[in-house]
Amino acid sequence: MAGRSKNILQEFQPGERREEPLSALFHENSKLTPERKLELGMRIAQVQNNPDLLRRMTCSYKSYPHQPQIALPVARLGTVPPLDEIILGRRSARQFETTKSVTLGELSNLLQLSYGITGSLELGSGIIQYLRATPSAGGLYPLEIYVLAQRVEGLDPGLYHYRVAHHALEQIERGDQGARLRQSESDWGMISTAAVDLFIGAVFDRVLFKYRERGYRFLLTEAGMLAQSLTLLGECQGVRSCVMSGWIDDEVNDMLHLDGRSEGVLLALCLGK
């Protein structure tokens, strides 16, 4: 009937066989049953009782040691509106003033206060676990942040990686990479005029080796929490944002020099004034 929404389930006849979507299969295979819970508990105990594994787990940092490194200023937000005002005022923005830039200090605040080191915890035997503001299953911190800078005061346009341990940016490529990203965005009907784009990638084995299939749920949850922290930190500073995930995966992974299997992009944010 014209004017009425159509229930897509009505397109299938009773008894008609249809394939389960992959998402349903993943959800089923990542459920905790009593048997899986026992197996997972044994796996976690095995990892926790291995000092060598624990020491390796506390070094969840990727780096590009031969690339130029740009030190970032220590995060300092200053006076910000009350949290309830920030939350109530948050709205997604896709178009930004091309004459306005994000400052290096604002970018530093975004990175350090969302996924940078904010504390430490001694686990014994001289093992130090460094902590971050975003919760992470087992403190494994499997995410990496890539920065596509176009209009950042004090930073040359280019592609960078956030080196957490040094609170610095590692320059992967020089020059404005925005045209390449805009072409990818145009394929799915959204082109932004962002000053900077942040890509959240996941090093899958950092969490899957310990939590198996359940770990993929943890990855997605952590990426969502990180994105929310970034959007609210942006709002604190007058930097608007929009979370994006509609790109062609292989194109974006290729742009960031990721293989898409051991590490791949989960989410991205465009930001600007």
Short recap of the structure:
Helix 5 packs antiparallel against helix 8 (214-236) and helix 7 packs across helix 8 (214-236). The strands form 3 sheets. The chain has a 7-stranded antiparallel beta sheet, with helices on both faces.
Name its key features:
273 residues, alpha+beta, NADH Oxidase, 7-stranded antiparallel β-sheet, 9 helices
- Find the CATH topology: NADH Oxidase
The named CATH superfamily: NADH Oxidase
Structural class, please?
alpha+beta
Shape descriptor: globular
Q: What is the CATH domain class?
A: Alpha Beta
Major sheet, described briefly?
7 strands, antiparallel
Oligomer: single chain
Number of domains: 1
What fraction strand?
15-25%
Helix content: 25-40%
Please give the radius of gyration in angstroms: 21 Å
Overall pLDDT, averaged? 88
- Return the string of H and E elements: HHHEHEHEEEEEEHEHHEHE
What do you see in this structure?
By secondary structure, the protein is of the alpha+beta class. Helices cover 35% and strands 23% of the residues. It contains 9 helices and 11 strands. It has a 7-stranded antiparallel β-sheet, sandwiched between helices. Helix 7 packs across helix 8 (214-236). The relative contact order is 0.17.
What's the topology here?
Elements: H1 22-29, H2 34-48, H3 51-57, E1 69-71, H4 83-89, E2 102-103, H5 104-115, E3 117-124, E4 127-132, E5 143-149, E6 152-153, E7 158-163, E8 168-174, H6 178-186, E9 196-203, H7 205-211, H8 214-236, E10 240-244, H9 249-255, E11 263-272
Helix pairs in contact: 5-8, 7-8
